[in-house]
Each structure stands twice: as C-alpha cells, then as structure tokens.
Specification:
Shape of chain A: flat
Oligomer: homotetramer
CATH topology of the largest domain in chain A: Alpha-Beta Plaits
Protein name (chains A, B, C, D): Extracellular mutant 15
Order of helices and strands of chain A: EHEEHEHEEE
Strand order of the largest sheet of chain A: 2-3-1-4
Number of helices of chain A: 3
Largest interface: A-B, 56 and 56 residues
Number of domains of chain A: 2
Pfam families (chains A, B, C, D): Thiamine_BP
Organism (chains A, B, C, D): Hyphodiscus hymeniophilus
Family (chains A, B, C, D): Belongs to the UPF0045 family.
Chain lengths: ~150, ~150, ~150, ~150
C-alpha cells in the first residue's frame, strides 16, 4: 500500500491538557493563560474547561496549534512539557463537540435526570450560591452540589 | 520502606473519558448518559464536558466511582471498555476544580483577552446565535467563534 | 437502580504516566524510580516502558497502587502530581497485557512485517549498534531504525 | 505577539493508543496491526507496547503519522476512532525515548532493585515459565511475577 498518499483527517476534535515540567512553582495558570491567548488568536473553535482545552478543526491545523502551544510555553522558559491529547475522528457524521453534551443532556432530560436545579458547591466571591438550570445553554457544565 | 502503610491521596481531581469498544454503532451517548446518572447518584462534585467528565473527591471514592461506571456499562452489554483518566493531586493547597478555570480567566481578563462577546460557531436549533459573556459564571466554557 | 451494589471490575489493565509538577529540574527519573520500587514491592504484574508503566490486577488494587504512587512522590517533596491513566476492562475474555503485543506481532509475522532485524537508531555508549530480533520475547519492544 | 511565526517543536516523543469505536467485535488487533505496518513504512523510530505505540521525531511528522493512522483505520471500515496521545517536548537536552527506561533502570540497579530474575506470571503455552534478566536490553519491559 502507498502510505505516502494517506491524508490526515479533514476534521477532528482534540482535547488537550498541557503540563509544564520543572517549573519553580506548582502553579501552571500563567502557562495555561498564555496557551489560551494563542487559542483565541488562532480563530479556531475551542473551549477551556478545568481539565483541558477542547479544539476542533482539520487534523493538521489542530495539531499545529497544540505544537505551537508547546513552543510558546518553552519560549517563556519551561524546559520540558508533557501534554495529554484525546483526539477523535469520525466518518459517519459531522458533529460539533458542543453537540455531544447537548445530546447526552437531552437523553438525561427525557428521564428527568437533568430536570433539577444545580447548586454549585463552592460559593461565589459575593458569598451567594450560583443557581443554574441544567442544560440551559449548549455548553453548560453540569455540576452536582455535595 | 513499608509501602503497606502508604495511604492514597485524601483528595484528587479526575477527568475521565470512557469509551465502549465493540458496540454495534459509533454512537456512545447512551453509555455516557448511563454514566452521568451514576455520577449524579454518587452525590460527588462532578461536571460533564464534551471530552469527558471531571469529578473531585477522595482518591478511593473517585476511583471506585469510575470503576463502577465500567461495571455499569458492561452490564448494559458492552464487552470491552477503555477509559482515559487524567488525575491530579496536590499538597500545597486545596483548590476546587472549578477554580482552575476562574483563575485563568482572571489572568486573561487582566489583559483584556477575556473581555469580549462569545459567538458560538454552531447555530442553535432556532437558528439564532447564542451570545454569552466570557467568564459570566465560574464554570462557563469559553468558546471562540470562527 | 441501586448503584451502591455496583462492584468495580475484578480485573483491569492500567497504563499510567505520572508527572511531578513544580520540581526544581526537568528530570523526573528519580521520581519514576521511586514509583518502580513501589511497583516491585506490590507483587503485582507490571511492566515499565518509556511512556509509562502498565499494571494488571483487580480494579481496586490497581487504583490503590497508583494512588500510593502519588502519595509516595508527594512524600519525597513534590507538591503537585498529574497522572494520565489508560485503563481497560473486558468481560469477553481474560487476556494478560503481554498477550496483546504477541497477538499483534503474530498478525504482522504472518505477512512478514515483523520478520526483520531491528537496528536501534541511537548508538550504545560503546558506539556499537545494538541488534535484536523482533519478537524474541513476548514483551519485547519492537523498534524500527531510521 | 505574532503567533503566526511560532514553529512547532523540532522533536517530540509521542505515545499513542488508538481505539476503534463501533466495531463488530471487541478485538482491535487487526486495526493495531494495520497501524504497525504504517509505522514501519514511515521509517520513523517507534516501538509498540501493550498499551500503545511510542514514536519520536519532528512534531509535524509525528502528528501527521498518527493522523494517517486514523485515516488508514477509517479506510478499513471503522466509522469512529478515538486516540489518547501523550506527547512530550524538551529544550534542555536531546534524549531518545529508549534512554528514559535505561536511565531509570540504572538508578534501580544502583540500589539492587533491578538485580533480579523476572518470572512472568502467566505460563507460556508449553506450561513452562519464561525467565528473563531485567534490563538485559535497553528497551526490555521489566515485569515482576506474582
């Protein structure tokens, strides 16, 4: 088989968690912020969550962007970086990553599992609890209070 | 050294992505929904996003819960399951996973990077764009429109 | 459904990559060595490779061991640790992790893909190339020279 | 900052685990074998282990190769594929991935932890135990018998 002609997937959804190694402190928020500025500048569709950043687009563009994130963090002085990337491709349908959450929420809503108030367990700066309706927006994170 | 006396961490933040293997279709939303019902019933603090589910608690409880998720999905007929788990522990501070996002967003807000409207690139069913303010809630996913 | 009665899987295969964060240097080999001593002391079936350590056993035992690894590395002064765990369970058959490699190698051997000498691309300290036969032992890593 | 000029890292070590979703059976060894043929044809330095395949080279080449692996598996009929990729880059030194294992083994050897016979816990088809010397080759997987 002629592998040289194999193209990379035209679209993929990648979720990556970039970890700086050998940094003076255990905090990595400055590095993560630098990466978020890069993501924003890329113009690609992405979203940040507490365990990583999800980005969607052509395989080559997505992987170049994550590679640039490594270079960027190296440029600000980090000698070693390890990332974990979950990447998915499918040929049966085109589905934006945000639709995955809404599809599951619709299944849960059908049996009432998502029909509830959500109380975030950590109080807001103003001390008031935040109350949100599960599934009130496509990308909402649902969190079950303790 | 006496390893037998080593305890597991009192708290951890885990983000897992559970993948059923050998299913008749490429859709896994029913399995994910079943896992979400388990998460809700656990009473633990968790959140679902498009690339996985983040859960926080004592190491043993979190790992037992993810193990139960495997058993649950096996019970509904899936012969093989592979999960990717990103798990973090730290001894320098107690930080709820939702605080990670807000800390990064505060850094971005300081240089204006997060001071913007967010246009979700995929239109809602009603054809209207959804508009949200970045960082308007602790756990919001920020998404940059194309 | 009564989730409380859900057991964790009786057996699983986990591959974990433990990353110390906020260490003075970019080298993590001392931490990895400490974890390997723990693995050895556990008496469980495991193997180390360049990208992680694979361990097999009951879900609870495997997860406790990885949790102990976090505690151990915290005890030697690392404030923050992030691990990536790939964990698989299956109900259709019992397969030791080393059998996965041999099964694939047998498929490759059938079409001659594995019938070759392997030249390691980096010279040994003594400057001589190391030559090994692919598949000469069940767990051998196969490496294709440049 | 001009992100457009950011290059991707000149070298990286990636370890990926490719999972076909929606396949008729729970066995994925044929898909893994197809990917191994691609790896061999690439001429890049790589190694397969029970939990994935490690490959080293320029970021763009490595990511293109993994993307081609997705396309290849889609071509043989798999509608959906999810991969987990652990990828590391460092600017402080050039280290081939096989050196990571030998460095840890040398630390273990110094305190005798690696000076032992290895008994593989699962008997060979002929019922005889397989005995190997830990660290007898740079890339050997070390496995501790039960």
């Amino acid at each position: 088989m002629d592998y040289a002609t194999l193209a990379t997937p035209p679209v993929c959804v990648a979720d990556f968690c970039l970890i700086p190694i050998g940094t003076p402190t255990a905090s990595v928020s400055n590095e993560v912020a630098a990466v978020q500025r890069l993501m924003k500048a890329s113009g690609m569709s992405y979203s940040m969550h507490s365990a990583g950043t999800t980005v969607e687009g052509p395989w080559d563009d997505v992987m170049r962007l994550i590679g640039q994130a490594h270079t960027l963090v190296h440029q600000i002085g980090v000698l070693r970086i390890q990332s974990d990337i979950r990447i998915g491709t499918r040929t049966d349908k085109k589905q934006h990553f945000s639709e995955k959450v809404s599809k599951v929420e619709s299944i849960l809503a059908a049996d009432g599992s998502a029909d509830q108030k959500v109380i975030v367990s950590d109080p807001e700066p103003d001390g008031k609890e935040r109350i949100a309706k599960v599934g009130e927006e496509t990308n909402s994170l649902t969190e079950q209070g303790l």
